[in-house]
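Sequence in, structure out. Go.
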Amino acid sequence: MTPAQLSEALRAALVHAVDDGTFALDAADIPATVHLERPRQREHGDWATNVAMQLGKKAGTNPRAFATELAARLGGVEGIASVEVAGPGFLNIRLDTAAAGELARTVVEQGGEYGQNESFAGVKVNLEFVSANPTGPLHIGGVRWAAVGDSLARVLAASGADVTREYYFNDHGAQIDRFARSLVARALGQPAPEDGYGGSYITDIAEQVVADALAAGEPDPRTLPTAEATEAFRARGVELMFGEIKQSLHDFGVDFDVYFHEDSLHESGAVEHAVARLREGGHVFDADGAVWLRTTDFGDDKDRVIIKSDGQAAYIAGDIAYYLDKRERGFDRVVIMLGADHHGYIGRMMAVCAAFGDTPHVNLEILIGQLVNLVKDGQPVRMSKRAGTVLTIDDLVDAVGVDAARYALARSSADSSIDLDLDLLASAKNENPVYYVQYAHARTVNVGRNAADAGVSKEDGFDASLLDHETEAVLLGQIAELPRVVAQAAELREPHRVARYLEELAGAYHKWYDQRRVTPFGDEEVSDVHRTRLWLNDATRQVLANGLAMLGVSAPERM
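Output:
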């Protein structure tokens, strides 16, 4: 019996009790899904629910009495061994061995679909993450968002959402001008401008711009007048830099569905369209020669200039137009992932969301990530060989590899700072979390190979009642948790929950492996015990693979 089947059995018992008048509830009061959780203490059963506490008072009865009635109705359900009422109205449910063990076959048969759910079915989500300026290699903060953002996209998709990964290409503004002037200076052998960019990558790109122009039979951009030279280096330099960022992200396992150019908002009239919409709503006013958005009506600390007195769009104007553009493209939820220095952005953008008639924190969500520190030999790593002042995606991947980097960055809550120990992440130790989980998967594959060599085949038999050891009950309980963990990770936008779950699952598997054999010992004949345990082994392998895939991490067959 799967958790979903048990939840449905609980709901059916509630429906019957309402239909026969036992519970004075409306049908609408009965939840579509009865929430279940694993008891912290194994002796309390396989599953617990507080549904009686949720509905008892609404039904005009004591929650414990409500639970007692519900327990009696569940007693006759096939697969349920016992139901106990605890405390003020908790229900502790124990499955019989066969019903619990049947999950192993269910998981193997569902394969890659196990763990998926429909909690976001029909919801279109635009998930914007990374969006680093194309003025240098992707720094370590952006790498964290690459890992977390892509994992969140996978978790949301596994929960039924229609997810679009979007990268906001900042090709408009002062930072691009500084980048272009830095390239020109380096190409001419001059020091970088005081407000410019350093690092050897500037030299690499400047040289490539010159080489590309000469190869195409164009004038050497270094010989052009200042304005023309700056434009030549800007156009080709940004293209080269962004191409490098895209390639680094691709090598990291992260690709985007949409690359949205900031320049297009200003060239297409999107800014004017957004301002007109807000003016129609009565939220725009003119003062001091500028156009203002009255964001204080929606909780912001001050009103915001959107068109400056010189007629130029303020920075927030592009953000306003971009949000409206996403909503007009049909996205129900717009999720933006930003760095630790963007807290002040939240209030003004939620005001913008409300000004358009949308619901803040529903139609628009802004997630803030914290800093990442790299440690090697017990000391902070502060310098990049190529970028000079910031650590980059390539620095991290060179040190520990893609899998370890992605897993380590995705396994902690994004709103907390983390220290990554490069020595640990590059090691083959159980203390290394990605190694611990991947080794568990490799071990399941090796068990399967050994079973085949010993003549153990799943197809020859399965008896769920034989999975009666304590370690098997614990392992099955962990396997049963994946759908709930995925749904919760999607709901809370916290993909790290999947990583932490995998570590618990790996631990349960390693303990089971130490105490139960899949292959016969000595002259022992192959029996249904071995075959059934192979089903459980392969179910664990499937769950580990499914969970790792949601983090964009490989599931190796040998280590």
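Check: The mean pLDDT is 93. DSSP finds 20 helices and 14 strands in the chain.
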